[in-house]
Amino acid sequence: MHILFFSSPDSNLFSAKADLEGNTLAHIEAVLDKLVDIVYEHRPQLIFIGGFALSDELLSKLQIIYDAFPNVEIALCVIDPEPDFLMRAIRTGVREVIGSSTQASIKETVARVSVRAKNNKKLDANEARIIGFMSAKGGDGSTCIAANIASALAKHKETRILVIDFSLPFGDIEMFLTSQKQTNDLADFSDEIDRLDASLMDSMVEHVSDNLHLIASPLSVDRLIHIKPTHIDRLIEVSSKSYDYIIIDIGAGIDPISIHALAKLHQLIVVATMTVPSLKRATQVLRYWQELGLDENRLSIAVNRFQSKADIKISDIEKAMGRRVVHYLPQDNVGVQESLLKGIPLIDLKPNSEFTKSIFNWASEWSGKVQGKSLWQRLKNR
Ligand SMILES: Nc1ncnc2c1ncn2[C@@H]1O[C@H](COP(=O)(O)OP(=O)(O)O)[C@@H](O)[C@H]1O
Ligand SMILES: [Mg+2]
To answer: What pTM does this model have?
Structure first.
């Protein structure tokens, strides 16, 4: 296991190295602001963090890390934390809290995490990262955000992205991505499912661009009967090997197809707005996710049409959902309408808008930083 020890400058917190044979270790002392960058650089499986004030800033950094690396384990080294802070840390995904950085407690923690890592199904590095976007309530914006995130990830030409529209019966993600007409839809893939392989898939998907491909939802309701939940397994199995990201628009409803897709996700983003009905539905989705026995660390919440004065506050959403909101997308009515009319992603139509900046910041958290610059910074410099 690759283990990162991260502590505040001059804290000497993890200097007493435990005997951790069989693991690779990195020990870094730096300010909290550096944490996320360092995690991206080192890609540890376990991170010991200590010597920092128990602040909202610390929690938000943890949330960013868990959003980007759902399988990472974080052990917080804190002395006598307030129960409230502890609860909030646990809600972000922290499963190990140690009161001292002695060799014994580090060793015990590593042993526990190793056992968990063996029990958990490991993500294959060669397989696609599968991310679902679900609107808490119809119209909250999962389609708009999924399409723009996919377009932002595709700016990196070596990254291959497949967008699949499971928001049945009336998916419309193609409208946010392209003005091209679709040749095949999800029902066509179902018809070919028995002989589907990588080359057939490549010939059937819509090539929005060289590295951004799309499987749209069926145009007519009568074609829905072609799609069976088991087809989802095969579709994801084949596409996982050909793409880096599979972005799935799940829509707002939960039906047999979307339930099947949920279990396949590495991460579910629930897109909500700052309204009471949306929040109520978001908490129902969370409960449903828990009932399905799915890992809570894999569910995160994004707020669309963010505004400082709304029916409810971000803190209400965070309290009800038991997790921090780390992604906010501002409202851009004019931009979105123009994007739909022209069939051009909003990030391309309005490259300097606040909406576009938020999308690129988000995408760069997933795709990582290259040569010290975020994806967004690199694109701005082009
Ligand atoms: N941040 C935003 N600002 C302005 N309009 C938005 C925003 N997000 C979505 N919309 C618009 O709201 C409508 C619903 O969005 P959509 O993504 O289709 O929602 P859903 O997929 O949840 O039904 C669409 O017309 C879309 O263009
Ligand atoms: Mg939609």
So the answer is: 0.70
